[in-house]
C-alpha cells in the first residue's frame, strides 16, 4: 500500500468525519442540556439539504449562500416546534424516553412531508464547482467536499465560540451543569432550552447541506445519518462540542486508515467494532468533563 | 310524544332500508361474479419507495386496461396492496396475510430482489403462483415450482448485452485493465458473475476487485486507486447513491477510462435528472425497454408520455405491467383461478409480454434476456444485440466536460 | 424591605413550612437557624421563586413576589447563594463568576464588578482559568460569593456558607460576610454554626419543623435557654 493512497484515504476520512461532527454537535447539545434525544435531528438536516437543493435548482443559489437562508429559517421553525411539542414533554417523568418516542414520530412525519414535496427519488446537490478538485501534488480535494468540510469547521467553531464567549451560550452550559444555580442567577430554563433546541436544529440544517455536498440523499436518508449522529456523540461524550469534533476526526481517521489498509467491505465493521471496544474502556466518551 | 316516537322509528326504518339497498347495489351491478382480488406488498415508502411506486403504477395501468376490456375471466380485478416500507420481514408477513387472512385470488410480485427471494418460499408453501423478478439466480435454484421470473431481473445476466457488444470491438481497441468495485450485497455480488466470465474470454485483466459496504461516503480513494493502476475500464457495480458518489469522484479527479459500466444505479430516472451530462456514456444492461419492438411497448410509452410526460416508460413501470401480463395470460389460458392449474399452464405454454415471448424452464426462468444499454444525451439507448440497436455506442468515452 | 407573611409550603402530604413569617429591613443582617430539615432551605427557595407556596405572601419593596419565576426574582435584586454552593463544575472560575452577571440589568457593569470581586478575593484571580470543580471548599465558597456579588444583590441570602469548610476557611468566610454587611449589604444568613451566626447578626429567627419557633434580637436569642440547650450545646 503506497503512501499516496493512505494519505488520500485519510483526507477523505477526515473531511467526512468533520461533516458528521457538524451534523452531530446539535444532537449532542439537546441530549446533554435538555436530556432530549432528538431522533428527528437528522431529518431536519435533510430538510436543510432539500432546501438548498431547491434553491440551487430553481434560483441558482449556491448551497453555502442558501445555508444563510435555511439555517435561520430552521431556527425559527424549531422555536415554534419547541413551544408546541418539546416543552410539554419536559414535564414528563422520563424525558429521555418520552422525547425519543415523540421525536421518532416527528421524524416519520417529516420524512413523509419531504417525500410529498420533493418526491421519493434521490437527489444530488450539484453546484457549479461540483466537478472539480483541488490538486495538491498527488492528492485530490474534491471542491464540494472542501466546501462541506469548510462549512463544518465553520459551524463547529461558531457553536464553540457561542458557548464559550457569549452570555447566552454560557447560560446554555450553566443550565445543563447546574440548572438550579442557573435559575437563581437569572437564567430562564425554558428560554435557554428553546434556544438550545433551535440552535441544534439549525446546525443540523448546516450539517445536512454539508453532507449533501458529499453524498446523494432521499427522504429516508436521515435514518442512515442518525447512525453517524449516535456514533460521534457517543464517542465524543454527550454535550461536548470539542469532543464531538474530535470524535468526527477520529472516526474519519479510522475510516480512512481502514479504507487504505483493509478491503473496503471491512470499513464499517472495523469502525463499529472499534466503537464498541472504545465504549467498554471509556463509557463516558472521549471527554468526560461536563462543559464544552 | 308517542307520535314523535313512531315518526323517529319510521325514519330509522327508511334509512336502514336505503343503506341496505346501497350495500347490495354494487354486487348486483357486477352480475357475472365478484371481484378478483390480487394481493401482495410493495415498498411504497422507505428506501425503495421510488421504484415500488413505479411498479404500482405499471400494475394499475394493467388493471385499468383489463377492467375496461371486461375483466379477467369476465370478472373485474382489484388490487390489495400493502406497503411493506422496504422491509423484507414485512413483505413476508404481508404475503402470508394476503394468502391466509385476505384469501386473495392471486398474488402479485414484490420488490426488491431480497423481498421477492423471501416471498418465493411463502408462495411455494401455500401453493400460490408468484410471478416476479425473483431474487437473482440463487432464488431460482431452490426447486420452487410456483415461482416464475417473467421477466426476471438477473444480476448474473446483467452485463451480457454489454459484453456481447464489447466482443465485436477489435481486440486492440478493447480495454486492458479493469477496476471492479462492487457493493457488498447479493445484488451487487450477482453482477460479478458475467464480469468474471467475459473478462477471461476477452483477455481483460481485473487489476482491482474490491467490495464496499453501503453507504459509500466518498469514492475519492477508490478512483485514485483505479487511476494509479491505469485501469481503462471501470465497473461500478452498485446502486444509485454509491454510483453517483463514484461518478462525481471520477469527474472531479478527471479519471477517463475507455468505458464506465454501471450496475443498477443508472437505471433510476433520477440518474439522468440529477447528474445531467455527467451521467452520460455509462454502459449498463436492461431486461425491458420502451424502445423494443414487442407489442404493447408503444401503448405504454404513449400512456407515460400523456400522464407523466416521459418519453419512455421507466423500467419498473414496465416490470409491474409485464408481470401482470404473464399472470393474466396464465389465468386466461388455464381458465381458472386454481393455482396449480395456472402453474401447470405456465410451465407448458408461451406468454407474450412487452419483454417478448417467454417460455419457462423447470426453474421458472425464461432463456437469458439482456440488452446492452448506454446513456447517450440523457437517453437510454439499446446498443446490443445488433438487431435491436437504437444507436451506435459512444466508445471510448469522451473526456469529462469541465 | 422584605416581609414574608404566613407562608405555607407542602411537599405532597407533608407540610414543610406552616404559616412562617419573617421581616428584613434595609442594611440588616438577619439569621435563620434551625436543625436539619427544619425548613430553612425551603424558605429560601420560596423567596427565590424556586418553590411555590400554597398560601401566604412575600412582599419585596412594597411589591408582591408571588408567582414570579426565579429569573424575575433575581432581576428584582434578591440573590441566593445556595447550599452546597452549586457552582458550574465544567466552567472556569472566571466563567462561574461572570455567570453571576447574566441578568441584563447588571451585565453592562460586569467588567468593573469582576475587578471588584477579584480585588476582594485575590486568590481567585490567580486561579481564574482553573475549573471550579478543582478548587478547595473555601475557595469554592468564595467563587459562589463572587458570583452572587456580580448580580448586584440588594438582598443576599446565604444558605450554609460554611458547611463542610475547614475552621480556618469558615472563619474567613464569616469575616467576609461581616464586611459585606458593614458596607451596607442586606443579608439573610442561614447557618448551623449558631453561635457564630448569632454573634454577627442583629436579629434572628429559629425554625423548628416548619414552624417559626422563636425570634428576637440575636443577642437575646444567644441567651435564650432553649437556644442554648438545643443549638449551642450548653
Topology record:
The complex is a heterotrimer of chains A (292), B (402) and C (234).
Chain A: H1 3-34, H2 41-59, H3 63-89, H4 95-118, E1 133-136, E2 139-142, H5 143-165, H6 167-177, H7 179-184, H8 189-214, H9 221-236, H10 241-261, H11 267-281
Antiparallel strand pairs in A: 1-2
Helix pairs in contact in A: 1-5, 1-8, 1-9, 1-10, 2-3, 2-4, 2-8, 2-9, 3-8, 5-6, 5-8, 6-8, 9-10, 10-11
Chain B: H1 2-30, E1 36-42, H2 49-68, E2 77-83, H3 88-100, E3 106-108, H4 113-125, E4 130-132, H5 136-139, E5 147-149, H6 160-166, E6 177-183, H7 186-201, E7 205-212, H8 220-228, E8 233-237, H9 240-252, E9 259-262, H10 270-275, E10 282-286, H11 297-308, H12 315-334, H13 339-348, E11 351-353, E12 356-358, E13 371-376, E14 379-384
Parallel strand pairs in B: 1-2, 1-3, 3-4, 4-5, 6-7, 6-8, 8-9, 9-10
Antiparallel strand pairs in B: 10-13, 11-12, 13-14
Chain C: E1 2-11, E2 14-24, E3 29-34, H1 40-48, E4 55-60, E5 63-64, H2 70-75, E6 78-81, H3 93-99, H4 104-107, H5 110-120, H6 122-126, H7 137-150, E7 155-159, H8 167-182, E8 186-190, H9 194-200, E9 203-208, E10 211-217, H10 218-223, H11 225-231
Parallel strand pairs in C: 3-8, 3-9, 6-7, 7-8
Antiparallel strand pairs in C: 1-2, 1-4, 4-5, 9-10
Helix pairs in contact in C: 3-7, 5-7, 7-8
Notes on the structure:
The complex is a heterotrimer of chains A (292), B (402) and C (234). Chain A has 292 residues and is an all-alpha fold. Chain A has one domain: ABC transporter involved in vitamin B12 uptake, BtuC (Orthogonal Bundle). Chain A has 11 helices and 2 strands. A two-stranded antiparallel ribbon of chain A has the order 1-2. Chain A starts with a helix and ends in an 11-residue tail after the last helix. Chain B has 402 residues and is an alpha/beta fold. In chain B, helix 12 crosses helix 13. Chain B starts with a helix and ends in an 18-residue tail after the last strand. About 5% of the residues of chain B have low confidence. Chain C folds into 2 domains: 154 residues, P-loop containing nucleotide triphosphate hydrolases (Rossmann fold, 3-Layer(aba) Sandwich); 61 residues, no CATH class. In chain C, the strands form 2 sheets. In chain C, strands 6-7-8-3-9-10 form a 6-stranded mixed sheet, with helices on both faces. At the A-B interface, helix 1, helix 4, helix 5, helix 10 and helix 11 of A face helix 2, strand 7, helix 8, helix 9 and helix 10 of B.
Amino acid at each position: 500500500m503506497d503512501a499516496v493512497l493512505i494519505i488520500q484515504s485519510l483526507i477523505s476520512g477526515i473531511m467526512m468525519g468533520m461533516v458528521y461532527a457538524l451534523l452531530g454537535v446539535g444532537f449532542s447539545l439537546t441530549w446533554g442540556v435538555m436530556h432530549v434525544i432528538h431522533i428527528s435531528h437528522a431529518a431536519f438536516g435533510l430538510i436543510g439539504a432539500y432546501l438548498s437543493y431547491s434553491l440551487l435548482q430553481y434560483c441558482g443559489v449556491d448551497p453555502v449562500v442558501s445555508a444563510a437562508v435555511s439555517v435561520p429559517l430552521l431556527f425559527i421553525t424549531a422555536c415554534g416546534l419547541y413551544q408546541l411539542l418539546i416543552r410539554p414533554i419536559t414535564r414528563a417523568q422520563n424525558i429521555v424516553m418520552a422525547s425519543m418516542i415523540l421525536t421518532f414520530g416527528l421524524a416519520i412525519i417529516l420524512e413523509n412531508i419531504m417525500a410529498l414535496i420533493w418526491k421519493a427519488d434521490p437527489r444530488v446537490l450539484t453546484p457549479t464547482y461540483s466537478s472539480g478538485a483541488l490538486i495538491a501534488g498527488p492528492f485530490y480535494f474534491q471542491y464540494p467536499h472542501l466546501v462541506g468540510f469548510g462549512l463544518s469547521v465553520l459551524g463547529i467553531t461558531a457553536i464553540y465560540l457561542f458557548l464559550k464567549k457569549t452570555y447566552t451560550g454560557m447560560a446554555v452550559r450553566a443550565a445543563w451543569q447546574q440548572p438550579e444555580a442557573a435559575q437563581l442567577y437569572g437564567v430562564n430554563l425554558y428560554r435557554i432550552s428553546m434556544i438550545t433546541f433551535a440552535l441544534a436544529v439549525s446546525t443540523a440544517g448546516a450539517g445536512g447541506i454539508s453532507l449533501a455536498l458529499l453524498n446523494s440523499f432521499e427522504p429516508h436518508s436521515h435514518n442512515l445519518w442518525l447512525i453517524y449522529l449516535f456514533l460521534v456523540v457517543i464517542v465524543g461524550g454527550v454535550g461536548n462540542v470539542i469532543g464531538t469534533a474530535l470524535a468526527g476526526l477520529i472516526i474519519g481517521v479510522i475510516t480512512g486508515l481502514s479504507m487504505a489498509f483493509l478491503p473496503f467491505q471491512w470499513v464499517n465493521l472495523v469502525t463499529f467494532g472499534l466503537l464498541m471496544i472504545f465504549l467498554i474502556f471509556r463509557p463516558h466518551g472521549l471527554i468526560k468533563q461536563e462543559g464544552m | 310524544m308517542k307520535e314523535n316516537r313512531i315518526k323517529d322509528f319510521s325514519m330509522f326504518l327508511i334509512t336502514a332500508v336505503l343503506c341496505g339497498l346501497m350495500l347490495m347495489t354494487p354486487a348486483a351491478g357486477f352480475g357475472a361474479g365478484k371481484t378478483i382480488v390480487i394481493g401482495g406488498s410493495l415498498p411504497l415508502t422507505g428506501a425503495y419507495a421510488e421504484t415500488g411506486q413505479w411498479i404500482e403504477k405499471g400494475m394499475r395501468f394493467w388493471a385499468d386496461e383489463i377492467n375496461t376490456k371486461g375483466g379477467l375471466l369476465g370478472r373485474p380485478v382489484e388490487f390489495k396492496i400493502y406497503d411493506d416500507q422496504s422491509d423484507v420481514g414485512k413483505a413476508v408477513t404481508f404475503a402470508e396475510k394476503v394468502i391466509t387472512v385476505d384469501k386473495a385470488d392471486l398474488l402479485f410480485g414484490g420488490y426488491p430482489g431480497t423481498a421477492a427471494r423471501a416471498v418465493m418460499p411463502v408462495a411455494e408453501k401455500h401453493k400460490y403462483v408468484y410471478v416476479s423478478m425473483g431474487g437473482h439466480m440463487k432464488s431460482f435454484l431452490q426447486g420452487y415450482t410456483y415461482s416464475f421470473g417473467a421477466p426476471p431481473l438477473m444480476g448474473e445476466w446483467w452485463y451480457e448485452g454489454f459484453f456481447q457488444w464489447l466482443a465485436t470491438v477489435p481486440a486492440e481497441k478493447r480495454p486492458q485493465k479493469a477496476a471492479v468495485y462492487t457493493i457488498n450485497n447479493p445484488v451487487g455480488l450477482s453482477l460479478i458473475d458475467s464480469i468474471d466470465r467475459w473478462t477471461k474470454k476477452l483477455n481483460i485483466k481485473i487489476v482491482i476487485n474490491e467490495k464496499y459496504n453501503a453507504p459509500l461516503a466518498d469514492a475519492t480513494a477508490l478512483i485514485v486507486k483505479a487511476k494509479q493502476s491505469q485501469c481503462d475500464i471501470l465497473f461500478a457495480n452498485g446502486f444509485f447513491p454509491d454510483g453517483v458518489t463514484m461518478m462525481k469522484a471520477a469527474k472531479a479527479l478527471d479519471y477517463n477510462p475507455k468505458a464506465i459500466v454501471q450496475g443498477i444505479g443508472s437505471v433510476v430516472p433520477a440518474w439522468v435528472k440529477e447528474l445531467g451530462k455527467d451521467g452520460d456514456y455509462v454502459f449498463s444492461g436492461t431486461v425491458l425497454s420502451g424502445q423494443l419492438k414487442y407489442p404493447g411497448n408503444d401503448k405504454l410509452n404513449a400512456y407515460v408520455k400523456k400522464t407523466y410526460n416521459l418519453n419512455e416508460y421507466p423500467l419498473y413501470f414496465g416490470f409491474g405491467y409485464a408481470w401482470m401480463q404473464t399472470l393474466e395470460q396464465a389465468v386466461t389460458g388455464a381458465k381458472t383461478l386454481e393455482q396449480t392449474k395456472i402453474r401447470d399452464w405456465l410451465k407448458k405454454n408461451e406468454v407474450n409480454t412487452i419483454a417478448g415471448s417467454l417460455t419457462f424452464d423447470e426453474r421458472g426462468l425464461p432463456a437469458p434476456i439482456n440488452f446492452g444499454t448506454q446513456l447517450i444525451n440523457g437517453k437510454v439507448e439499446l446498443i446490443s444485440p445488433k438487431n435491436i440497436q437504437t444507436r451506435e455506442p459512444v466508445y471510448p468515452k469522451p473526456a469529462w466536460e469541465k | 424591605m422584605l416581609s414574608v407573611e404566613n407562608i405555607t409550603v407542602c411537599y405532597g402530604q407533608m407540610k414543610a413550612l406552616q404559616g412562617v413569617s419573617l421581616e428584613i429591613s434595609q442594611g440588616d443582617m438577619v439569621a435563620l437557624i434551625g436543625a436539619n430539615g427544619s425548613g430553612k432551605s425551603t424558605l429560601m427557595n420560596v423567596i427565590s421563586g424556586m418553590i411555590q407556596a400554597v398560601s401566604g405572601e412575600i412582599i419585596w419593596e412594597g411589591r408582591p413576589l408571588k408567582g414570579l419565576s426565579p429569573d424575575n426574582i433575581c432581576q428584582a435584586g434578591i440573590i441566593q447563594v445556595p447550599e452546597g454552593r452549586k457552582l458550574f463544575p465544567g466552567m472556569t472560575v472566571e466563567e462561574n463568576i461572570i455567570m453571576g452577571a447574566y441578568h441584563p440589568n447588571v451585565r453592562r457593569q460586569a467588567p468593573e464588578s469582576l475587578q471588584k470581586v477579584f480585588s476582594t478575593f485575590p486568590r481567585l484571580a490567580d486561579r481564574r482559568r482553573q475549573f471550579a470543580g478543582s478548587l478547595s471548599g473555601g475557595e469554592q465558597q468564595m467563587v459562589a460569593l463572587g458570583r452572587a456579588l456580580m448580580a448586584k444583590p440588594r438582598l443576599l441570602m446565604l444558605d450554609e456558607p460554611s458547611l463542610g469548610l475547614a475552621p480556618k476557611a469558615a472563619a474567613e468566610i464569616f469575616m467576609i460576610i461581616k464586611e459585606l454587611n458593614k458596607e451596607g449589604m442586606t443579608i439573610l444568613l442561614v447557618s448551623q454554626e449558631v453561635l457564630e451566626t448569632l454573634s454577627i447578626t442583629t436579629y434572628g429567627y429559629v425554625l423548628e419543623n416548619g414552624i417559626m419557633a422563636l425570634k428576637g434580637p440575636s443577642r437575646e436569642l444567644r441567651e435564650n435557654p432553649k437556644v442554648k440547650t438545643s443549638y449551642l450545646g450548653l
